[in-house]
Design a protein that fits this description.
Layout lengths: L6 E7 L3 E7 L5 E8 L11 E2 L1 H17 L8 E7 L5 E4 L9 E2 L7 H19 L8 H11 L1 H6 L2 E4 H10 L4 E2 H5 L4 E2 L4 E2 L1 H8 L9 E2 L4 E4 L2 H7 L6 E3 L4 H8 L7 E6 L3 E7 L9 E4 L6 E7 L3 H11 L1 H10 L3 H9 L10 E3 L14 E3 L7 H25 L6 E5 L6 H11 L3 E4 L4 H13 L5 H8 L2 E5 L3 H34 L1
Parallel strand pairs: 1-5, 9-12, 15-21, 21-22
Antiparallel strand pairs: 1-2, 2-3, 4-7, 6-8, 10-11, 13-14, 15-16, 16-18, 17-18, 19-20, 22-23
Helix pairs in contact: 1-5, 2-3, 9-15, 10-11, 10-13, 11-12, 12-13, 13-14, 14-17, 15-16
């Protein structure tokens, strides 16, 4: 196949929406489209979505992306779908969805996590390299078992986000080792489902858990029904794919030891490629797409979603004005934030709107409000608060002596020059920016590796990943932010017990 007619399709079933990207064999983007879907919050701390919304968005973004340069479906050589880890969908024997998908941001499982930590915490960490936390699939399954017995009885097969959408187009049930590890039920060293966790702790049969395959394996082909629904050609190969974290690292060229990612998306994280695992509290130990590498990640659960929350709750004026001017509401918010000085005159934001990975009791807060503070200060403080949170995560990795060479700044938030500069100034790091940084681009390249368009990941990166910017921090701002960061950390620590007490008070109501 000639490169001109060898197109790769990558689709990210993200937390906030779906993005489809068409890429040619040289990394040129031929078309892309994005569509949001609704997240439901039926109770405090809960977060759910309708998996059918994912598939609807998949169909619509695909058709829109193909139309941008009149790409023909027959020229799409391969497809890869990625998505967030942990999010859970349960199907019965007739493939009916038994309940809404419980998102990885959901916090309902605090009691289950406490029980797991108390009774099996050390064993689970030894097997999976992870601590039991609210964002993992195992506690969600325990919650269903304890609170939805009718769902538990009918539950026949477990799906993670990407695996459900891929199943809709291929009819093949499978997952990859990264999403398997993200369930908190997978033996990290031996790469198999853990008998001890699945059978002895949860009481679940392996038959209800998907087979695990390499992410680049061609697992199926577009079915006749899916071809009719999506406009794709029946028989188009689809690979297994992987979690969005691993895919976007690859898509930004992070494939060698010490190469890292700083991500400003729904969640934020700092992650580094390593030659071996460094399991530790506060760290997520992922498999890299490369079979002999790992991906050490330290995350904050509320990153760009903090700015979105601030927009939706407190920026009605900017949203209305942006619509009238044909602009993004975030552009107007960023413009307002520039009116406030570095440090927002002592106003500090803790961005724990969805709790913390280690501490689910955490909440967000503004600290240091005075009569001088105006909307521009609050707007900038949100951006700075997320950056402080990411610096805190970077220090966790540094304390483990993980080799770190360089970072790529990625995610929707990184497209803001203001926010990108704030992050660099707060963290004191130099960062690269690539021409295409989202996971759907990485998924497209991974599809190309899977069907042999590229002989390996190294060739895909060399041919397609292009650095367009080298971004540096402002030393004077870094010095100012370092002093404020110390206050950020202290106030964060001081508030932990208050948040836990507040949780107990609200739970009693």
């Amino acid at each position: 196949m000639s490169l001109q007619k060898t197109y790769m399709l990558g689709v990210d079933i993200g937390t906030g929406g779906c993005k489809a990207t068409l890429v040619d064999g040289n990394g040129r983007i031929l078309g892309s489209a994005y569509r949001e879907y609704v997240t439901f919050y039926p109770q405090p701390g809960w977060a759910e979505q309708d998996p059918d919304d994912w598939y609807d968005a998949f169909q619509q973004t695909l058709k829109q992306a193909m139309s941008q340069q009149s790409v023909q479906a027959k020229d799409i050589a391969c497809i890869c779908i990625d998505g967030p880890t942990h999010t859970m969908i349960l199907l019965d024997k007739e493939d009916n969805i038994l309940s809404p998908a419980i998102l990885w941001t959901d916090r309902r499982t605090i009691p289950q996590v406490e029980w797991l930590r108390k009774n099996f915490g050390k064993d689970i960490f030894k097997i999976t390299y992870q601590e039991p936390n609210i964002n993992w699939t195992l506690p969600y399954l325990l919650w269903v078992k304890e609170n939805k017995p009718e769902v538990w009885r009918k539950f026949n097969r477990l799906f993670i986000t990407k695996d459900y959408v891929r199943y809709r187009v291929t009819g093949v049930w499978a997952t990859d080792r990264a999403d398997a590890l993200g369930t908190l039920m997978y033996d990290a060293a031996n790469q198999k489902w853990s008998e001890e966790i699945c059978s002895e702790i949860l009481g679940i049969s392996f038959s209800k858990l998907p087979p695990v395959y390499p992410p680049t394996k061609v697992i199926g082909k577009i079915t006749k029904r899916a071809a009719k629904e999506t406009g794709l050609i029946e028989g188009t190969p689809v690979i297994v794919g992987s979690t969005d974290q691993a895919v976007e690292a690859f898509g930004n060229g992070a494939i060698k030891e010490g190469q890292g990612i700083i991500k400003l998306a729904t969640a934020g994280n700092v992650a580094v490629v390593t030659e071996k695992p460094y399991p530790a509290p506060g760290i997520i130990t992922y498999y890299h797409l490369h079979p002999k590498k790992w991906y050490m990640l330290s995350a904050t659960t509320s990153c760009a979603i903090s700015y979105r929350w601030f927009r939706d709750v407190l920026c009605e004026e900017e949203v209305t004005s942006a619509k009238e001017q044909g602009l993004s509401s975030y552009e107007l918010m960023n413009t307002k934030a520039t009116l406030a000085p570095v440090g927002s005159e002592g106003l500090i934001f803790h961005p724990d709107l969805q709790g913390g990975l280690q501490n689910p009791y955490l909440r967000a807060s503004f600290i240091g409000i005075t009569m001088r503070h105006r909307k521009e200060h609050f707007t900038r403080a949100v951006l700075e608060g997320v950056a402080f949170s990411l610096r805190d995560r970077l220090e966790v990795l540094q304390r483990l002596n993980i080799p770190i060479k360089d970072f790529r700044l990625i995610g929707g938030g990184a497209k803001s020059s203001l926010w990108g500069q704030i992050v660099r100034d707060v963290m004191g790091i130099r960062a690269f920016r690539t021409a295409a940084d989202d996971s759907s681009f990485g998924a497209a390249l991974l599809a190309g590796v899977g069907v042999g368009i590229f002989k390996n990941m190294e060739e895909a990166v060399k041919r397609c990943v292009k650095v367009v910017d080298v971004l540096t921090p402002n030393p004077e701002n870094y010095e100012k932010y370092t002093k404020i960061f110390e206050v950020y950390q202290k106030t964060h620590k001081d508030l932990i017990e208050s948040y836990k007490l507040l949780y107990k008070i609200l739970k009693e109501r």
